[in-house]
Amino acid sequence: MPQRSFAGKIASFLAHPGTMVVASFLVRYGIFYYVRTHFPQPVTETYPIGAETGRLARALAAGEGFSSPLDVNTGPSAWMTPLYPLLLAGVFRLFGIFSWASFLVIAAIDCFLASLTAWPVYAIARKAFGTKVGVAAGWLWTFLLTSIFYSVVWVWDTGLSALVFSLIFLATMHMRDSNRPAAWAGYGALWGTGAMINASVVSTMPFLIGWAALELRQKSIPWLRSAVIALLVFLAVIAPWFVRNYVVFHKTILFRDNFGLELWLGNNPSNPGIWSWWLHPNDDDGERKIFLRLGEIPYMEQKQREAIAWIRAHPGEFLYDTWHRFVDNWTGFDDPVTDLAHGPLWANFVDFLGLLFPLLTFAGVLLAYRQRTPYAFPFAAAILFFPVVYYVTHTSLRYRHPIDPLMTVLSAFSLVTLCSKITARRAGKIPGRAGANAAREMTPAG
Questions:
Q1: What is the pLDDT of residue 36?
Q2: Where are the domains of the chain?
Q3: In b/e form, how buried is each residue of 385-410, taking b as 16+ CB within 10 angstroms?
């Protein structure tokens, strides 16, 4: 067997997902180190970026239970699902609450989680569209601006949510060929874990599980038992959180209790088009006092009533604001990530990327349907349905980030397809073995 050339070894090394993961981490933590050494901030000014999640973790680490998401003692909370605050609380217990050491460890964890996502991004793209797209997607994720930004700046579940949802999607792709009870049980457990990290992933669950089950049915493989197993395990994973909330608040709470507040922040007389962030009880003394007087659950219920009343009285403005949020979800023109832009040229570049990314994504969905890719529907369902709740509440690229790995895959597919067509047009029809090799590179792995 002839030995590969040095260039071939380098190409093989760069095409390995492990290389992408390591490179992703070095990029993210290197930028974090640069930012924190050149623009130092007191550690007490870094954790308010995490806001509620950091304060919930503080209460857990201090033995006060899952409570007090604001900067005052507000009692038991169901503001967000528990897994990421529990992770932060574990770091606080080991390295100190809001200490500099804890901040460095948490930043390393967030960078690692974002970096590890390069592997499922590569695997999803390779299975759906072939090795060449897999390599392109993995490296595109390595340098994706939003992934770098949220790894370095935000103390939140953003990176973990993107990783777990990409794993859920990858598992969905494999479930279409398997009816093993253990595999479907693990699939249900993965969905439950995702829901306990970021409840928004559940919005895609009926479409992805339904698609995998129907794929089995079309192949005359027993499917009903598999779907039931996944759902039962999913319920078993989320049940302790639901039971805890019922015992503490004496009512059923679906994952989180803050929907009313988020709906009101995006739909009230002061809303400029996306949301009125300054009215959040974190920032407004009057709202914080109301929160303390009513308690968390009554406060959320009151805000939901106020938001619904405003929507009913102003349907035209609600539709306009919903359109504004739809545009912002896909472009990020009004998002804090653009704070990275420190000059007109860089700002225009960031805005250009913000527009190009969704355009390439939707082009990838259309190409997948045109080429009759079997995974076209789950891609489309995840992209279309995941952000729907944010159109009626308020948007942020941070909220969209769990589907950014899929957007990366679809964008890479669009770019590779475009480059292949340009190359083929310049070279003319590729004869013989070269043509066969090119076709094999674009053939999905499964």
A1: 80
A2: 6-441
A3: bbbebbbbbbbbbbbbbbbbbbbbbb
